[in-house]
User: Fold these one by one.
Assistant:
Number 1:
Amino acid sequence: MSDERPRPQYGEYATPEEQARAAGQTYVPPPPPPVRPVTPVNAAAEHQGDHDPTTPDVPIFNRARFIDRVVTNGLLIIGVFSFIQAFQGYLSFGTVLKATATSFKITDFEPAAGVDAVGRWLLVINIVLLVASIAVSVAVARRGHLTFYIPLVGFVLFSIVQGTMLYLSAPSLLTQISEHYLR
C-alpha cells in the first residue's frame, strides 16, 4: 500500500516529538486537563457531545435568547387573553355582526341564519391555532432556536381565516362598510 500524500517539505506530518527533535529541543507534553467535578451542567453537556473539556462550566447569559423568550411568552399571553375576551363573541357571532353594523350606522343589515355556526368554527380554529402556537414554540425553544415568529405566524393565519370566513358569511356587511368609508 503506497502513501498517496505528497512528501512533506517542512515536517507537516511529523509528530510533536519529531518536530521538537528537528528543532534541537526536547519535547514537553502539554499538561493534562484539570479534573472537574461532575455537576448536572457538566453531565448534560457531556451527554450531548458538544462539551469542550478545556472551557470552564460558566453559565452564559444569552441576552438574545432571553429577549426572544420574553417576546414569545408575551405574544402567547396576549393571544390567550385575546381568545378569552373574544370567546363569548364567537358563540353569538350574529349579534357581534349586528353590533358592528350598528357601529357603522348601517341599520338595514340582518345576519344570515347560519352565521352563529361560523362563529363556532372560528372558535375551534382559534383554539387549534393557539394550542399549536404554544406547542410549536415550546418544542422549538427546547432545541435552542428563536421562537418569536411562531405566535405571529399563528396570528396571521387566524386573521386570514377569520377575514375569509367573515367575507363568506356576511359579504353584504363588508360591502356596506367599504361604501361607508368611500363616501
Note: The helical segments are 16-22, 40-48, 63-91, 93-103, 115-142, 149-169, 171-182.
Number 2:
Amino acid sequence: MSSLGVFSLLAIANIAFGAGYPFVKSILVYIEPSQWVFLRAVLSTLVLIIYSRRELLDAALSLRDILWIIVASLFGVVLNQICFVEGLQRTLPAHAAMINATVPLQTLLLGAFFLRESLSASKIIAIILGFAGILYLLGFGVVGQINPFLKGDLLSFTNAAMYSVYLIIARYALGHIQPKVVLTWMTGLGIIGFGIHANWVLPLNQLAHLPTKIWFYMGYLIVVPSVIGYGIYLWALKRVEASQSALFCYLQPISSGILSFFLLHDMPEQRFYVSAGLILSGIIVGSLKR
C-alpha cells in the first residue's frame, strides 16, 4: 500500500480513538473505571481470539517475542488504559484528548533516544512548544488560577507517556510478528493487570440496567478502538517511523471535542484554547521537513 493509504488508515484510527473519549466518559457514570477496563479487556480478548484464531495457531513466538509482548502489554494496554479512564473520570474529554495529542512529541524524543531517529531543529522546537502547552494546561505559569482538573490531567499525561513508550517498543521489537497475534496477546495479558486493579470484580450487576446508548458506546469501544484501531497501528508501524505514525494523534482532540459538545455539552475554559494552540503549533512544526 502507498504512503497515502497508510496515512489515511492512521487518520481513520485516530478519529475513532478521539470519538471514544466522550463515550468512555458517559460509561463511567454507570460503571467504575477499574471495572470498565477489566470488562473491556475480557470482551475485547474474546473478540480478538475469534478474529485471529488462525494466526494465533500458526504463530511461532520465541521467548524473546513473548517477553517483549508482555512489556508492550504493560505499557500499551494496562498502564495506558488505567491512567486513561482514571484520568478521564477527573477531567474533561477535551483536556484528555489534547494531552494525548502530545504523543507525537513524546515519541519524537523517545524515537531519537532509543531508535536513533532524526531529531531536527524543527522537531526540537515542536517538543518545546508542545510541553509548554501541557504545562500551561496543568496550571504552571498561570497566576491566581487553580486547575480544577489537575489530577485528571496529570493521569492523562501519564497515559500519553505510556502509549509513547508502547509505540517505540512496537516499532523496535514487534514489527516482525503478525499484528493480530500481537494485539490478541497484549490484550489477553492485560486482563491480569486489569483484574488486579479491579480486585477481580466485573460489573455484571450493572449491565442489566444500562441504557441502550451505553450498550452502543461499549460495543463501539470494544470493537473499533480496541481491535481495529490498535490493529491499524501495529500494521502501520511496519511501514512508517513511530514518530510519523504518532503525528496523527492531533486528530483525536477534533473528533473528541465535537462529540463531547453534542453529547456532554462540555465547553473547555480559556486555558484550554491557549494550551491547544501551543500543542497544535508544536505538532505542525514537528511535521515539517528539514
Note: Residues 3-286 form one domain.
